[in-house]
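Supplementary Methods, section 5.1.

A reviewer requested that the exact input to the structure prediction be made available. We therefore reproduce it here, unchanged from the version used in the analyses.
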Amino acid sequence: KETKNEMQKMAKSLHFVEAGKLRDKLFELEKIRSKKKRA
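The structure derived from this sequence is encoded token-by-token as follows.
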């Protein structure tokens, strides 16, 4: 049970990190897009 819980915790944090990266990428894309619109 212990190892399984650890694996799940790791998977969750990894997923969280990946989600954060994706959100950052989308945020950057939106910033670039808004800049182009203004120009």
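The mean pLDDT is 92. These observations are discussed further in the main text.
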